[in-house]
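Observation: inputs received (chain + flavin-adenine dinucleotide).
Thought: call the complex predictor directly.
Action: predict_structure
Action Input:
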Amino acid sequence: MTSVVIGSGFGGIAAALRLKAKGHEVTLIEKHPDLGGRARVFKRNGFTYDSGPTVITAPYLINELFELFKKDPKDYIELSPLKVWYQFIFEDKSKFNYSSNEIEMKKQIEEINKEDVKGYEKLLSFTKKIFDKGFIELADVPFNKPFIMIQQLPALLKLKSYKSVYSLVSSYIKNEKLRRILSMHPLLVGGNPFTTTSIYGLILYLEKKWGIHYSMGGTGNIIKGLEKLMNEVGIKIIKGQEVTKIISNGNKITGIQLNNKRNINSNNVVCNADPPTVYEKMLNENINNSFLFKWKKDRMEYSIGLFVYYFGTKKTYDNIEHHTIKFGNKYKEHLDDIFDKKKLNKNISYYLHRATATDKSMAPDGYDCFYVLVPVPNNQSKIDWSTEGNKMKNLVIDKMENDLMPNLRQNIVEDFYLTPDYFEKDLNTKYGSGFSIQPKFSQSAYFRFHNKSEIYDGLYFVGAGTHPGAGVPGVLSSAKILDKII
Ligand SMILES: Cc1cc2nc3c(=O)[nH]c(=O)nc-3n(C[C@H](O)[C@H](O)[C@H](O)COP(=O)(O)OP(=O)(O)OC[C@H]3O[C@@H](n4cnc5c(N)ncnc54)[C@H](O)[C@@H]3O)c2cc1C
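Observation:
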């Protein structure tokens, strides 16, 4: 059996390894000269910048890939648990250290609003129920047939999946600051806490279950370890070439064509590339899409875009935690603007990553290495990033100087940024969305792009746009589904 995997994000690499373990002859093709997709690494002037994922949860899903080949993950990667998971900062400069230390958590909640301690306990036990159903039971189930979804509906309704995460959290928690903290998880997978189905409340419990980890040397070291493993087990890796066409005979997939016009025949094609782009651009000579599928595809709503500013400083900021989330005072209005109105809002909220808080190897001695991520509208906005990019960079530096790091600008020694244009043009993602389609109930499970194509025989999907969804645990789970369907 032969399988071609298009794309080397976490989902694509996991798919290649899982198919190889099943005895397939596997070829992995990546457009870029380096692997990782959203988890690529940029190295510049002694600084190592992980471009994307930095919060590593459910590490067993990564370890499993090594264990498939009876290898010890510790020979390839080093994951280190963090003590403070996120430091939340509000406009009034108050802070909240979010962690697995429940005594500390409750102490801080009590200081903000005593009544909410009980609500927090109840919320935790409710999110455990969602986690048991949504993650343990359903994350690696292929939702290919409507009856699988119909079977699950009563349980999903019982878990209040019709509510948003914010509304679920608000039913337990009274204080607005705590509501924001405990409902922010959809943002990690490209969803709006005010509209994302409460099923995504499971992330709150998932973090508690296995902790939050950092990959020493950066997330890029996990990709490096997995690439070493792929080479050892005989997966053929083609880098720096783009798949331009998926070839089919009627509805049966027979192979792919590369941008150098070379064809590779294959029994299966597994796409880690964004599903809407695959259906619209790589299969566009085929007219086999049913009316229902076209309707489903056309009504899809896309996740937000991301502005990510990477910078190194000539001094260290020892007061800054590894992960900081700053809520702007117009939090909801900012989210409404970027998700729905598709316009920029100067009252930004942002996430700041300081890798050097845990790992000094990420920057030269005495320097610090950061990225700051600002959620922005995706490219449905038609924003011209060639002019707005620099303005956004200056805005976020101003905010960080005011909130956290006085005189930051004069200490920055090198920098660059990515906008939704990078996600659209370089990563082939529709509208440059940061996390493919949004994690709404109407776009989850059966309603998402199926792992086994609903149109073509021999075509499969792994990664953020398919079930269960974005985030490293999600895309690794999507690859696990292949074990059941190929
Ligand atoms: C800035 C940022 C921060 C994030 N932080 C976290 C975090 O802390 N924790 C977490 O769990 N998740 C995080 N995420 C989400 C997570 O990174 C992604 O959901 C996940 O990595 C996506 O993996 P994927 O398998 O879908 O593939 P992707 O990473 O999207 O990779 C797809 C690959 O396919 C390639 N490709 C596309 N088309 C073609 C073609 N035609 N031919 C060849 N190759 C092609 C692309 O070049 C790319 O390499 C973050 C995302 C971003 C952007």
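Thought: report the result.
Final Answer: Residues 6-12, 29-32, 37-39, 52-55, 242-243, 272-273, 306, 308, 373, 427-428, 434-435, 463-464, 470-472, 475 surround flavin-adenine dinucleotide (CB under 6 Å). The radius of gyration is 22 Å.
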